Amino acid sequence: MKRKLEFSELIFKILAYTFLTVFALLCLYPFLYAISASMSGRHAVEYQELVLFPKNVQFDAFRAMFTSNEFWNSYSNTLFLTIYGTVWSLFVAILGGYALSKKRLLFRKFFNFFLVFTMWFSAGIVPQYLNYIATKQVFNGIGIMDDKWLVVIAMGMAAMNIILLRNAFENVPSEIEEAAIVDGATEMQVLRQVFIPMSKSTIATVALFFAISRWNGYFWARQMISNGNEQPLQVFIRNKLEQYTDLEQLATWTNNYAADSLIFALIVCSIIPILIIYPFIQKYFAKGANAGGVKE
User: Which H helix or E strand runs over 158?
Assistant: First the structure.
């Protein structure tokens, strides 16, 4: 039998649900507006007649985008950075978290403090830039001329994600590890066959963090990737935005759709992959964040 809510509890629930509903609608509205603007007529977009639903529906902006080789090239570059960047970053985070979870690690407290210290005090943009430039020179020296690999390798470190994995690995019962060692398992076998399977939720959560970070990565990709054919989708969108905010460029615009419609179409297509992937990982998200964020 359900307990009858007290008046104060009822008021709190009403206010909480109202606030969450309003907040969710505020978060959803920009995405819905972007969809409407991407498929509305030029006059409705340029004269800001849209509120929620599209007007004079047309798909010329999407058609122009899908027939652009630059769009597909930047999309493939973003997939490259996301897939390889996530795999590499996850590899580094798993090894780092596993090592720091071991009490027998020499100077373990120092390494843990040093890792947390980088979250408190950032080195700043200039040292990071100089570090990436030095890494780029090393890559060029060994024959790697593709700047996308620089973004993948040089940005493989994330202190927060290593800490999440470290805490998850520390929650694995030591008896299971000892039993595996008694059976003759090596260190890598213990990691691969014991710790990783028992921390799948946290690993999936960290992988999602890395994937979103790589997919949305803009600043360093624009700074470090000089070749326009290697730039990701986010840089491509920014370049188009700068191009179409040029008054001289807009003065010669003769298409049936507004320049903003093309920008919104690009934004919508850049969000779709994350919207597709997220529901499949959502079941691991809360469980993984709690397992890695709480130390027993």
Answer: none
Entry pTM: 0.80
| C-alpha to C-alpha distance for 28 and 35, rounded to whole angstroms | 11
Characterize 209-232 residue by residue with b for buried, 16 or more Cβ atoms within 10 angstroms of its Cβ, and e for exposed: bbbebbbebeebbeebbeeeebbb
d(CA 55, CA 43): 9
130-141-81 Cα angle (round to 5): 65
> What are the C-alpha distances in Å from 192 to residues 95, 184, 188?
11, 14, 6
Select from 3.40.50.300, 1.10.3720.10, 3.40.50.970, 3.30.420.140 the CATH code of 65-256+266-293: 1.10.3720.10
Domain borders along the chain are 65-256+266-293
Contact between 245 and 212 (Cβ < 8 Å): no
Contacts of 295 (CB under 8 A, 6+ apart): 167, 170, 171
Going residue by residue through the chain, which has 296 residues, state the pLDDT in tens, using 9 for 90 and above: 566 767 777 888 889 999 999 999 998 888 888 888 888 888 888 778 788 888 888 888 888 888 888 889 988 999 999 999 999 999 999 998 888 888 888 888 888 888 888 778 777 777 777 877 887 788 778 777 777 888 888 777 888 888 888 888 888 888 888 888 888 888 888 888 888 888 888 888 888 888 888 888 888 788 778 777 888 888 888 888 877 766 555 556 677 778 788 888 888 888 888 888 777 776 666 555 555 444 54
Hey, what are 167's tokens?
Answer: 């805490």
